[in-house]
Amino acid sequence: MLNLIIFGPPGAGKGTQSEKIIAQYQLEHISTGDLLRAERNAGTTLGIRANEYIIKGELVPDEVVIGMVRNFMLSKSSAQGFIFDGFPRTIPQAEALDLMLLEFNTSIATVLGLQVGEDELVKRLMLRGYTSGRIDDQDENTIRNRFREYQNKTLPLQVFYTGQGKYQGVEGIGEIEEIFTNLTACIDKVKL
Ligand code: ADP
């Protein structure tokens, strides 16, 4: 299996680059943001509970997200690999992921960190708010709160994965194709 994490702040381009990576390496996409929005749209208890956090720009509790990822992975047990997009977002989520992958007799090959400055991120998110209709992309306070959550709870993962020797940073500003080429170089370096 080839398991990757695409890492970076809200608006860094994780979803866009994930789609291209999936097409090239035949991976299953696990976007916890997409899964949570699907739950909300289906009106499940989990989705309704999660939405209370999402609209405030807060992280959804770890146990909710971890359970959802576990179920998704179990439902795709014949996958050639996974790309984790928007997960893990906390140290406990990263530790849970390592254990889940161990159950599959596998591990994370590399963590691809998209690097984009905050001014560019705010611009992108506001623009996405107009086109995607996502409520959490339309309110500046919510966006700011998401950055705060990222700084406090998610950024420590960069140290966590650097410690495991798995973190690779990639410039996230520029042409989509050029960024993709740089990401594939990082993936090909760790691919068996
Ligand atoms: P973005 O990366 O632009 O913030 P996402 O679609 O990844 O967008 O996430 C949207 C929201 O969903 C987050 O602000 C958060 O509330 C919730 N969420 C997504 N993934 C996680 C996660 N792994 N842990 C906790 N909350 C999450």
Encode the helix/strand succession as letters. Answer: EHEHHHEHEHHHEH
From the N-terminal CA to the C-terminal CA, the straight-line distance is 9 Å
- Give me the count of strands: 5
Helix fraction by DSSP (H/I, runs of at least 4): 55-70%
Order of strands, main sheet, comes to 2-3-1-4-5
**Backbone shape:** globular
Gyration radius over CA? 16 Å
Instruction: Give a list of the ligands.
Output: adenosine-5'-diphosphate
In DSSP terms, counting alpha (H) and pi (I) runs of 4 or more, how many helices? Answer: 9
What's the CATH C level of one domain?
Alpha Beta
Strand content: 5-15%
Mean pLDDT: 96
In the CATH hierarchy, what is the architecture of one domain at level 2? Answer: 3-Layer(aba) Sandwich
Coarse structural class: alpha/beta
CATH superfamily of one domain: P-loop containing nucleotide triphosphate hydrolases
Quaternary state of the chains: single chain
Q: How is this structure best described in words?
A:
The protein has a domain at about 1-25 and about 80-115 and about 160-190: Rossmann fold (3-Layer(aba) Sandwich). It has a five-stranded parallel β-sheet with strand order 2-3-1-4-5, with helices on both faces. Helices cover about 60% and strands about 10% of the residues. It has about 190 residues and is an alpha/beta fold. It contains nine helices and five strands; from the N terminus they run E-H-E-H-H-H-E-H-E-H-H-H-E-H. Adenosine-5'-diphosphate (ADP) binds near residues 10, 33, 59, 60 and 65. Adenosine-5'-diphosphate (ADP) binds near residues 86, 89, 93 and 136.
